[in-house]
Write a structure and sequence with these properties.
The protein is mainly α and 131 residues long. Helix content is 73%, strand content 0%. The chain contains seven helices and no strands.
Length: 131
Amino acid sequence: MREAGFSPEDADAAVCRAIEEKRIDDGLFARLWVDDRLLHHPLSRRAVEQELAERAVPREHIAAALDASYAPSREPEVARELAAARWARLAAIEPEVRRRRVIDHLLRRGFTAGLAADIVRQVEREEESCG
């Protein structure tokens, strides 16, 4: 609003009014962001938290949204779903390259190296036991 020529006082008053009227709701925004990430572009909890922090969402809203939709215990499940999907798409690639690419995919999504390696081993074992 300031870039549009409004005074700082007018801009602040408009933001305060929007918050009072529930037109701006950081808590709702955070919950919707977490849900959207999990559904459309899953990331680690840490990466989702960082995205929200970069958007100036208050920490208490970030924590509440993560606690509501993305418990720490769910992170391995999210990583496993990502790994299994990538693993299946890379079926024609030699095993070591396939392993590395799936681990790298999980790392780019913000998962820790230890979790990524464990999940890829799990996915690989599951494939071996089924086929």
